[in-house]
Amino acid sequence: MLFPVVENHRLDALRGKPVGSLMVHEIYRSLQGESTFAGLPCVFVRLTACSARCVWCDTPHAFRGGKVLSLDAVVGEVIGYGCPLVELTGGEPLLQEESHELMTRLADSGETVLLETSGTVPVERVDRRVHIIMDLKCPGSGECENNLWSNLGWLKPTDQIKFVIASREDFDWTVAAIREHGLDRRFTVLLSSVFGPVNPAVLAEWLLDSGLNVRLQLQLHKYIWEPNARGV
Ligand SMILES: Nc1nc2[nH]cc(C(=O)O)c2c(=O)[nH]1
Ligand code: SF4
Ligand SMILES: [Mg+2]
């Protein structure tokens, strides 16, 4: 994968990581807070580093830090929870080549595997058994220019597209993108408001007025626990 030279410092946290290992920020079990799997117990594997810098990012702590673990160690820890659902998130999991083998090995073990990805890196090689939950970045994220639209051609009907909306402008952009690409007919579409600045009741009203058949998503974990809590 090639990234613009000016952005390479964003991947510094992965420099020197041995081949065959993963830089893991944290592994924990919680309730899935997003997607159509919301509410189910889920093991989260949060991988270090992201090539994006969304202005409203709620996990900037995952940009760096964490520890190097072998694939065997990560698989063993996940399976050890005895939980049938696992999600790779970050950061951006697909920046680490080894994420592909991790997803395949987890699926081979019988896990239902979810992948949270930013929509700015290719999903082409993701194991077809994985449920991809892919962002399309709205203008208010500051990363809209980096959306990789070709990814739409690699998603399956069972995959999910998430728009995180920071303003009415973002909402209008989202409606236009859904209509232009027929997203609501091809995939599950999730509309989420940036936690804090956008009242979900306002987004609910916009959604109903639009007539679109898409799903409002509340980040369940931010209502159950402190919005800034980590490890949940
Ligand atoms: N409970 C919980 N559910 C989540 N779903 C997606 C998450 C993420 O950070 O990608 C997340 C998270 O951080 N916590
Ligand atoms: S893609 Fe996700 S982890 Fe990366 S900056 Fe945006 S919100 Fe944060
Ligand atoms: Mg998150």
TrEMBL record:
- Organism of origin is Tautonia plasticadhaerens
Q: Which residues bind [4Fe-4S] cluster?
A: C50, C54, C57
The GO annotation for biological process reads: tRNA queuosine(34) biosynthetic process
- Record protein name field: 7-carboxy-7-deazaguanine synthase
Query: At which positions is Mg(2+) bound?
Result: T59
The cross-references to PROSITE patterns, in alphabetical order and at most eight, read: RADICAL_SAM
Q: Which family does it belong to?
A: Belongs to the radical SAM superfamily. 7-carboxy-7-deazaguanine synthase family.
Q: Where does substrate bind?
A: L31, Q32, G33, R46, T89
Gene behind this protein: queE_1
Which positions bind S-adenosyl-L-methionine?
W56, C57, D58, G91
* Highest rank taxon of the organism: Bacteria
Its keywords, alphabetically, are: 4Fe-4S, Iron, Iron-sulfur, Lyase, Magnesium, Metal-binding, Queuosine biosynthesis, S-adenosyl-L-methionine
Lyase: is it a keyword of this entry? yes
Q: Fill in the subunit field for this protein.
A: Homodimer.
Looking at the record, the residues that make up the Radical SAM core domain are 37-227
The pathway to which it is assigned is: Purine metabolism; 7-cyano-7-deazaguanine biosynthesis
What broad taxonomic lineage does this protein's source fall under? Bacteria, Pseudomonadati, Planctomycetota, Planctomycetia, Isosphaerales
